[in-house]
Amino acid sequence: MSKNIQIEETKTDVLILGSGGAGLFGALHAKAANPDLEVTVAVKGLLGKCGCTRMVQGGYNVALAPGDSTERHFMDTVEGGKWINRQDLAWTLVEQAQVRIRELENELGCYFDRNPDGTVHQKAFAGQTFDRTVHKGDLTGIEIINRLAEQVWARDIKRMEDHRAVALIPANDGTRIAGVLMIDMRSGAFRMVRAGAVLLATGGGPTMYKFHTPSGDKTCDGMAMALRLGLTLRDMEMVQFHPTGLIAGEDTRITGTIIEEGLRGAGGYLLDGNLERFMHKYDERGERATRDIVSRGMFQEMREGTTAKHGGLYITMKHLDPAMVKKNFKGMVERCADCGFDLVSGNVEVVPTAHYMMGGVVFEPDCTTEIPGLYAAGEDTGGVHGANRLGGNGVANSTVFGGIAGDTIAGAINAGMALPEPDRDAIEAAIGLCRQPLERPAAGIDQVRTKLWHHMWEDAGIVRDAASLARAGATLDDLDAELDTIGVDGGNLAYNLTWHDWLNLKNLILVSKSVVAAATAREDSRGAHFRADFPDVRDLENSTFTVVRLEDGKITLGTAPVDFSRVKPGESLLDESAA
Amino acid sequence: MASARVETRLWVWQRLSAAVLGLCVLVHLGMIIYAVQDGLSAAEIITRVSGNAVWFVFYAVFIVAVAVHAPIGVRTILNEMTGLSPKATHLIMAVLCLVILVMGFRAVIGLYQAGAGL
Amino acid sequence: MKVAAHRNHPHYWAFVLHRASGLLLALFLPAHFYVLGLAIEGAATLDGFLSWAETPVAKLFETALVILLAAHLTGGVRLLILEFVGSRESSRIAVAVGTGIAVCTGLIFLLNGT
Amino acid sequence: MSNTIKVSVWRGAEEGEFESFEVPRQPSQTVLDVITYIQRNIDTTLSYRFACRVGVCGSCAMTVNGRPRWTCRTHVDKVATDGTLQVAPLRNLQVVKDLACEMTDFFDKLDRAEGKFHPTKTRHDDFDFITPDDKKRKQASAGIECIGCGVCYAACDVVDWNKDYLGPAALNRAWTLVNDERDGGNDVRLAAVAGDAGCHACHSQQGCVEHCPKHLSPTHSIAGLKRETAKAAFKGLLGGSD
Ligand SMILES: Cc1cc2nc3c(=O)[nH]c(=O)nc-3n(C[C@H](O)[C@H](O)[C@H](O)COP(=O)(O)OP(=O)(O)OC[C@H]3O[C@@H](n4cnc5c(N)ncnc54)[C@H](O)[C@@H]3O)c2cc1C
Ligand code: HEM
Ligand code: SF4
Ligand code: F3S
Ligand code: FES
């Protein structure tokens, strides 16, 4: 054990990090495939309550209806991803989604909405050539996670709630993963959990931006831990922004959360500070243009034009039938009303908001990674979505690959197998990193967060260029250094949120650095990545993707060519199947 | 859980008896209001009930229903609001049921036969 | 820590009233039977009791009992409706109507008797 | 509107005391924002729970001015009518620290109420045909949007009186499943929810309905269970012999 710090140690066959769609499916599948395995789910909050899968509103993309096909869903995904998706992953996604959705409905009990004739209802979601989004009202995520959590509670699956993973610990011979160092948040104690297999399913989450949609527990912990372990991350420049997040002023948690896209679809107007429409300046479809275009238009308008009270713009529905708005957007109307906004007959201030990270850990279709024993699934991974994620492909991604990971793990390890000895130096180093703020006099970390939010938003957000990215890079280094001088009151480590805020920021800054590095490297505009200095898509046929690693504390960067393993730009699987 | 069946049945019995009591109490209340109009006298009560089979049956039903209904309710209250053991409350329920039955029938039979003495 | 409950809403009061009235009625019942049982010992004893029952204090007591009975009845009917018919909208109204009926019954009883 | 608000917050675990803070008022401020402000700017050691911040996850419920509520969707204007707030942890749950509660009992009870789907088909079968206006489907839908916030659990006196009582949320979930025609677990479920730890302990106090932020009605769900368990009892499904 470590020289001066005594820590508790526990063992399990399978350790799952995170209880979103990926984590819970991983646990259920591993347990189903081999009931003898001891499976443990560790999560930064309460099981099933945190993470973004629960927040899914729109729904779940899957080709089910007659007329739709695996090929069509695949083409939409790859075209949406601007051809940098890893095609074998995208294919696995669209194919396995068809199995997973039936598993959700038939085995887990999700009760998806139906058509009047009793068949499952599939709605339209932007960027797709077919109505294929399965949903439960506009609260699909609650339905999915509640049903998953119930099944997990019912099984002999161990729960480590309020346990935060802080480092992936390799075996002392470096051949594989040995387990994960955790902080038991309720007591503040460190705990080393040794395991035969670890599933990384902590769900990314671009919360380094001033405006963001994900839940508060998501701070790119998984990606940061993967970087520190030496894994490769890809497509990190690809951060998706949702055009309409609520903005409610300083110090409001609700700021950044989503105002449903359907409002624009139903005819809602976006207005500037003078209450004038502006979207037609950017796209002939006006407010109904795709996510990236609307976000960019709004960002431009906010930079150049007049803004509303809090620096955002307005969405309004008041020119539409109030009864329709009240009925069709009941949840949104109530949510706005709870914060003092009138969505039916007023103007609600909105702003584009960071939503999803397409990039993440490089992994294989069977969810293995470079490190034996370490598996990854869900938003922590990269390659499935390419440069842009279709609305509805996110939850499909986490549930499909989470399940696959569980299956793979069950096939790879045995119950009660001999566990590798963890690398004690790595544990020591990780504890040192976590404890460092506790050794210093307490000071406010808030200004670091505010600066991080501001600079990522301004310089590495919706619109970037070489100069802004250079600024962002320099700022991140400064912020990292600044954070390292700030202490946290460690008098009582039990449920010490401020300590965790510090750790969150540490991770966010590291992952932000990889976003900036990758964004600097990609000198063209693709999907979610828009370079003002390179506004066009370049050289589609020779597309490459970015990869980053952490070496000696520095982000190193590379690019690799995309393998068009199924279809090349300019071709389509649909023509083939039609022919 | 062994109590599932017992509790379910007690619940059913309490609701059934409540429904019966509902009717009884309506009649009873109506009767009270009618009866007190010009003062209540023993003679009056006795005249009404004694020897009258219809009233006798009515009160018999009333008593049985109440002997079912009230003790179940008292048991619930004791279970929830006192530290008494389930066994004890069950016993209290049974005793209360008996007390109500005995005292009730003693009174009604008394009234029914009282007329004979007048 | 012991967090206090938030009980100040109509349904909770209805519950309290139902429970209190039920309990009081159950306690009163043996007494009631005892008095009636006096009939066995002859009309005179019963009459003696009934004339005591004419005093204002006793009258008040009786009125309270009648209200309790009426309240328990209406509350009980409300619960039966809730449990067997199960309409959500009607429940609040039922509390109000029930309480109203109970009070009226008491008043009628009181006015009638004087 | 005064430009600050006086907030007294529970500090400690089972033992502890209220501590007062003064927090600047902001438009559109929720109770969660007030708590966050204290943690970020006044006392960094304050503990509380939240995740989604928009009323989806059900992590942030606390007792606000004596009432159990979700705090991320409770606007300060609505509750601090006299400019003061008192915030305590949720009732009937064990306190971890300050405002954060342990919810294991609550979740375990969902499981004990058989609040989980018992499949009759597999991932290799197609979806069942069920029309949206099917009566049972509608009943299942009426209670399905529970976010597991525990507000009902905190509002119910029976939970306090009877430690085994499964509580409104668990029973509400059981009822949605009783109405789920795809489910095959009703025999075990009805046996699990009958009795004095189950639906028969409920006295329709309706604190659950009164406070549920999702406007669900566990009371009516529980009433449904009472009817179904009664039927089951007469069919001898609840087991045991006389
Ligand atoms: C508001 C919103 C709406 C969305 N709507 C849609 C939609 O309509 N359709 C769609 O397809 N996608 C949607 N998405 C995206 C989708 O939710 C995600 O892509 C997907 O659910 C991610 O699943 P996951 O399992 O990877 O991560 P999550 O569900 O986020 O789960 C991550 C888990 O890891 C835990 N965790 C994090 N860090 C740690 C740590 N250090 N230690 C231990 N545990 C940790 C978290 O607490 C959480 O339990 C939406 C996202 C948001 C935010
Ligand atoms: C004279 C008669 C009555 C007596 C002594 C009596 C007594 C009681 C008692 C002691 C309780 C338990 C209260 C509780 O659990 O909180 C109770 C409950 C109940 N009573 Fe009565 N009652 C009488 C008449 C009625 C009538 C006429 C009805 C309805 C029509 C009725 C309906 C109910 C119901 C539904 C309950 C169950 C309450 C619950 O469990 O939540 N009762 N009664
Ligand atoms: S029923 Fe309502 S109050 Fe209870 S847990 Fe569910 S959402 Fe919360
Ligand atoms: S508050 Fe409790 S008593 Fe029943 S109606 Fe709701 S569960
Ligand atoms: S924080 Fe999720 S419901 Fe309030």
CATH level-two architecture of the largest domain in chain D:
Orthogonal Bundle
Please give the share of residues in helix of chain B.
over 70%
Q: Any idea what the shape of chain B is?
A: elongated
| Largest interface: chains, residues each | A-D, 73 and 74 residues
Level-1 CATH class name of the largest domain in chain D:
Mainly Alpha
Whole-number radius of gyration of chain B? 17 Å
Write down the overall mean pLDDT of chain B: 86
Estimated structural class of chain D: alpha+beta
Number of domains of chain D: 2
Biggest pleated-sheet summary of chain B: none
Largest sheet of chain D, if any?
Answer: 5 strands, mixed
How would you characterize the overall build of this protein?
The complex is a heterotetramer of chains A (579), B (118), C (114) and D (242). Chain A is of the alpha/beta class and 579 residues long. Among the domains of chain A are: 243-352, Flavocytochrome C3, Chain A, domain 1, CATH 3.90.700; 439-538, Fumarate reductase/succinate dehydrogenase flavoprotein-like, C-terminal domain (Methane Monooxygenase Hydroxylase, Chain G, domain 1, Up-down Bundle). Chain A is 34% helix and 18% strand. Chain A has helices at 21-33, 70-80, 87-108, 140-154, 221-229, 262-265, 291-304, 322-328, 330-338, 393-412, 424-435, 446-459, 466-483, 497-521, 573-578; strands spanning 8-17, 39-42, 60-61, 122-123, 133-134, 158-160, 163-170, 177-184, 189-200, 233-234, 239-246, 269-271, 313-316, 347-357, 360-362, 374-376, 381-382, 544-551, 554-561. In chain A, a hairpin with a 4-residue loop joins strand 8 (177-184) and strand 9. Chain B has helices at 3-35, 42-49, 53-81, 86-117. In chain B, helix 1 packs across helix 3 and helix 2 packs across helix 4. Chain B is elongated and about 50 Å long. Chain C has four helices and no strands. Chain C has a single domain, classed as 3 helical TM bundles of succinate and fumarate reductases (Up-down Bundle), CATH 1.20.1300. In chain C, 80% of the residues lie in helices and 0% in strands. With 114 residues, chain C is mainly alpha-helical. The longest helix of chain C is centred in the middle third of the chain and has 29 residues, at 56-84. Chain C is elongated and about 55 Å long. The mean pLDDT of chain D is 94. In chain D, helix 3 packs parallel to helix 7, helix 4 (135-142) runs antiparallel to helix 7 and helix 8 (186-193) crosses helix 10 (218-234). In chain D, the strands form two sheets. A five-stranded mixed beta sheet of chain D has the order 2-1-5-3-4. Classes of the chains: A alpha/beta (579), B mainly alpha (118), C mainly alpha (114), D alpha+beta (242). Chain B binds chain D through residues 1-12, 79-81, and chain D through 158, 161-162, 191-192, 194-198, 200-201, 226, 229-230, 232-233, 238-240. The structure holds flavin-adenine dinucleotide, protoporphyrin IX containing FE, iron/sulfur cluster (SF4), FE3-S4 cluster and FE2/S2 (inorganic) cluster. The site of FE2/S2 (inorganic) cluster has 12 residues of chain D, from loops.
